[in-house]
Amino acid sequence: MEKTIKEWLLEHEDEFLKDLFTLIRIDSVRGEAREGVPFGDGPKEALEAGLKICEGYGFHTKNWENYVGTVDYSPELPHTLDILGHLDVVPAGEGWEVTGPFEPLVKGENVYGRGVSDDKGPILCALYAMRAVKELGYSLKKGVRLILGTNEETGSADLAYYYKKEKAGEMSFTPDAEFPIINIEKGAIKGTLKKNRTAKGSLLSLKAGVAVNAVPQKAVMEFSTLSEEEFKHAKDAVEKECGVRLEKSGNTVTVIGVSAHASTPHLGKNAGLAALSFAVKLPSLSAEDKEAFEAILKLFPYGVTDGSGLGIKMNDEESGDLTCTLDLFAVDDKEMSFTFDSRVPICGNKENCEDVARKSSEAKGFVFETNGMIPPHHVPKDSDFIKALLSCYEKVTGEKGECIAIGGGTYVHEVENGVAFGAILPDVDTHMHGADEWIKVKDLLLAAEIYAESILALCS
């Protein structure tokens, strides 16, 4: 070959950025669904633009009813390797300073805009890897398919639709995470504990949590009456025990803690649990509430995130510890409800996790509700597929490759023999989902080079 892959990518950097800017300028946040437009106008427009770019480089494309698009290296080759990316993005949010969220900008070494690292930039890394292999004249014996999804951020219904119609390739990876390789994604169980509320004490209501996958940062309690003396006594004890802050305005008490993702709950300070700890110290709390709240605090002790209170503590060498956090709290005049999120290692299953959590909850007098357990996802690290990917990562970067287990889920959680492979380098925070999302241009080209080498290793 006259040129190396690296040289080809450097020559096409401007073209890469032009295509990236085209995609970033499209606000592809999920919108209102209608006939033929399952996720709104933005994702549909981004899909059409993405397919047009791919078609322009000579690839065979297909639009699957605006759920996903597919881009085949060569439709004549056997369907072997799938690369899954997504064109939908999270909402713009606030706090952008370098540029507007849909106004892409290169500043210094970085490119900014919503989607540059999640996941429009990485999709183009995969596309340009396919282009480099094709235009440099390499010969492949197995097929490569780039899948352009449109619903990763709000449920992955796009892939569910696609895989009802089409089989997955023998191997799959998504450039929607970080390098080196995520080969284990813990399972998950979300459960709700409920109990009717009849006796009335001083507590009128309690609310905490905004999502079932985040440790609540704030809790608000409304009381019919609460003296300054009663408040201060309980406040001082809880602030000391829990490291949170309590504020009182009239008969409203607000607890300020620290939020954290449900996959790393030990990093947070659970305002909801701190609120229950505060409430049980009040003489004016009803006996019924006190008994129920104390039961919750035994099932989910403050600062304990290993599931031991529920009886589901477990771990294994490959995927680590189970985590468990109580994230949604709702107490009104008729009912109390508490919802937890547990991330389960590969040794977990319905019998030793879901069934045990149910038994523990019901033993404390709660009704237990769950949609069931999402099984863990695992691709053995000694598989030829993973060995090949790690070898390509090491060849291009010069860094040691290794497999990683995470508590969250990626785009390939439901895909057999699927792993997350880049495109973000280790220990780099690109403000993904935040303001001023960015990524280094050279890192995008590096990821493209890794993917090109991977295509050659797996499909030649």
Task: Explain what you see.
By secondary structure, the protein is an alpha+beta fold. It is 31% helix and 27% strand. It has helices spanning 5-11, 13-24, 41-56, 120-135, 157-165, 228-242, 271-279, 287-299, 350-363, 384-397, 441-459; strands spanning 60-64, 68-72, 79-86, 105-107, 110-112, 143-149, 171-174, 177-178, 181-185, 187-196, 203-208, 214-215, 218-223, 245-249, 252-256, 260-261, 315-316, 320-321, 323-331, 335-344, 367-374, 377-378, 403-406, 418-420, 423-424, 438-440. The longest helix has 19 residues, at 441-459. The chain is elongated, with a radius of gyration of 25 Å.
Task: State the main characteristics.
single chain; 460 residues; alpha+beta; 11 helices
Low-confidence stretches: none
> What helical percentage do the residues reach?
25-40%
Strand content: 25-35%
Average of the residue pLDDT scores: 95
Q: Output the strand order for the largest sheet.
A: 14-15-13-11-19-20-10-21
Spatial separation of the terminal alpha carbons:
15 Å
Query: Total number of β-strand segments?
Result: 26
Q: Which shape, going by the Cα principal axes?
A: elongated
Largest sheet at a glance? Answer: 8 strands, antiparallel
- Taking all Cα atoms into account, the compactness measure Rg is 25 Å
Number of helical runs? 11
* Secondary-structure class: alpha+beta
